[in-house]
Amino acid sequence: MIEASACAKFILFGEHAAVYGYPVIALPLSTMRARAELSPAELGSGLRITSEDLGQSWILTDLESVPSSPLLCLAYRLIQQAGLQHVPDVHVRITSDIPVASGLGSGASVSVAVARVLLKYLNLQFSLSQLNAFIYEIERFYHGNPSGVDNTVIVYEQPVCFVRGLGIRLVDFPLSQFVVINSGISASTMAAVSHVRTGYLQFGLGSVVSHIGLLLSSFLSAFASLDVAQLGRLMLEHHVLLQSVGVSHEVLDRIVFLLLESGVSGVKLSGGGQGGNLVASCSLSVKAQLESVASFAGST
Ligand code: MEV
């Protein structure tokens, strides 16, 4: 059996503006993972991918046309790249502890884990940058117009400062200062990105998007000078800007309010929004209150 895995991620700063070419900071969540296991299957059965968690399975039996399902398309392209004339008889089993539709990169993480087992099986060598470019193409199936930050942070599994079209800079962040809260409300990143696009194109929200983009340099200076109060203010300002482009949610806003009351220095939604997760900057001394607020609000 061949095994591989990939991490979850969260966006610290710059989501949505990232789609329009502004820098975004994203971090890996290495303890939450999607896993893929590849084992040989019965002769003539083709390539089968199953996800027990989702209760779904996909089968590729021939190479005549490009399949429409993203995961089969991924397999199809790798088989083509390996120069095989037929589909190998294998079973790829996916398991994941990343909640689906929560803004934690579940789709990209599954794609990376599946690509990694197939690369090993097909004996193909991809650099991280090649794997990243390959997964970006698959991500476009899921998200339409992604900036590429999700696949990048998941493939490299390191904190990144990413600019669409320009690539990445690896950054060093003290992870212990942040807590990620999953609101438990599922949301589609694709829908949120397309909602912002409509506002951007038709309702003049470009200035809000550029305001988000421009906050990043202040955020980085606050980080460099360890100015926790300023970091917190900037996170909140970012949340309010995201709220004004219509990607917050009443439950997210309620959690933000409760957490600020309980003493966190900053909190904002993280990722696509309209549900999904939030990120809070806090000292360990308020972590216990934070957990009780989050569980009170029905989140984890
Ligand atoms: C999603 O994790 C981040 C967004 O900015 C979309 C993207 O950059 O592709 C909302």
Order of helices and strands: EEEEHEHHHEEEHHHHEEH
**Principal-axes shape call:** elongated
Judged by helices, strands and strand pairing, the structural class is: alpha+beta
How many β-strand runs?
Answer: 10
The oligomeric state is single chain
**Between the first and last Cα atoms, what is the distance in angstroms?**
34 Å
The hetero compounds bound to this protein are: (R)-mevalonate
Q: Helical content, roughly?
A: 40-55%
How many helices? 9
C-alpha-based Rg, rounded: 20 Å
Average pLDDT works out at 91
Beta-sheet strand percentage? Answer: 15-25%
Poorly predicted regions are none
Describe the sheet with the most strands: 7 strands, mixed
How would you sum up this structure, described in words?
The chain is an alpha+beta fold and 300 residues long. Helices cover 42% and strands 23% of the residues. The chain contains nine helices and ten strands. It has helices at residues 70-81, 106-122, 128-143, 149-156, 189-202, 206-224, 228-244, 250-261, 287-296; strands at residues 2-13, 24-40, 47-51, 56-60, 90-96, 160-163, 167-170, 178-182, 266-270, 277-281. Strands 1, 2, 3, 4, 5, 6 and 7 form a seven-stranded mixed sheet that branches. Strands 8-10-9 form a three-stranded antiparallel sheet. The two termini are 34 Å apart. The mean pLDDT is 91. (R)-mevalonate (MEV) binds at residues 11, 15-16, 18-19, 103, 146-147, 149-150, 189, 193, 271-272.
Write a brief structural summary.
This protein has 300 residues and is α+β, with helices and mostly antiparallel strands. The protein has 9 helices and 10 strands.
